[in-house]
UniProtKB/TrEMBL annotation:
<keyword id="KW-0378">Hydrolase</keyword>
<dbReference type="InterPro" id="IPR005135">
    <property type="entry name" value="Endo/exonuclease/phosphatase"/>
</dbReference>
<dbReference type="InterPro" id="IPR036691">
    <property type="entry name" value="Endo/exonu/phosph_ase_sf"/>
</dbReference>
<dbReference type="InterPro" id="IPR037493">
    <property type="entry name" value="ExoIII-like"/>
</dbReference>
<dbReference type="Pfam" id="PF03372">
    <property type="entry name" value="Exo_endo_phos"/>
</dbReference>
<keyword id="KW-0479">Metal-binding</keyword>
<feature type="domain" description="Endonuclease/exonuclease/phosphatase">
    <location>
        <begin position="4"/>
        <end position="245"/>
    </location>
</feature>
<comment type="similarity">
    <text>Belongs to the DNA repair enzymes AP/ExoA family.</text>
</comment>
<dbReference type="InterPro" id="IPR004808">
    <property type="entry name" value="AP_endonuc_1"/>
</dbReference>
<protein>
    <submittedName>
        <fullName>Exodeoxyribonuclease III</fullName>
    </submittedName>
</protein>
<keyword id="KW-0460">Magnesium</keyword>
Amino acid sequence: MRIATWNVNSVRTRADRIAAFLERQDVDVLTMQETKTADAKFPYSAFQAAGYEVAHVGHNQWNGVAIASRVGLEHVRDHFERQPRFAKKGEPELEARAVGADCGGVEVWSLYVPNGREIGDPHYDYKLQFLYSLQDTVRPGDLQVLTGDFNIAPRDENVWDIDWFDGKTHVTEPERAAFQMLEETGLTQITHDDLYSFWDYKSGRFPRNEGMLIDFQLATAPLAAKATRAWVDVDERRGTGASDHAPVIVDYDTHGLNIDQVR
């Protein structure tokens, strides 16, 4: 099973590009973040024409997550248990930041972890709460993968210049500790040789390869043991109309796995 995760930065803007990517890379399951659209406006037809079922959670032009699968899409969850709510002002709301489904015997989650904005901002505390609450979703003995934009570079080598990030989010000890806690619950980061998955549009970051690795697939041990290849499709960051993120792709040899291990 080939699973890809991609912060597409507006699915309506890039629907044709995403469909072409699915065909070019022969993807079985694609998780998307920052779809930036409400459910009613999601371009379902572009995915259905390519043979994919879609589960999408989107309320407005912000956030938004989706799973597109050609190997089945069952038991869709539009949030995880104890997912925190947020509002800088007014009544806190459950944002469109998580969707889960069972795809071909594997429980797949698409996650868009809050950015955090600045250290000390309420959004930073929300980010940490989101990550710690997410731990309750992990079931180490099951076939499960948590994918998406985690908005954390867990190690110094995951950014182009750690000194540039001094005093900024994404590399602070509390964020990294929360990411490590996820790993300690029984998740394994599927590693690859590609350095980065995100290059900011600003300041010509991509041509200078000034990037960050903040998009991940974290799998439970039974599934992680079956990962055979992983890479970042850097080509999808090139050219006019590209997202500022590139897809992270992993091949899992699911033959012989006990699919009853997924709820």
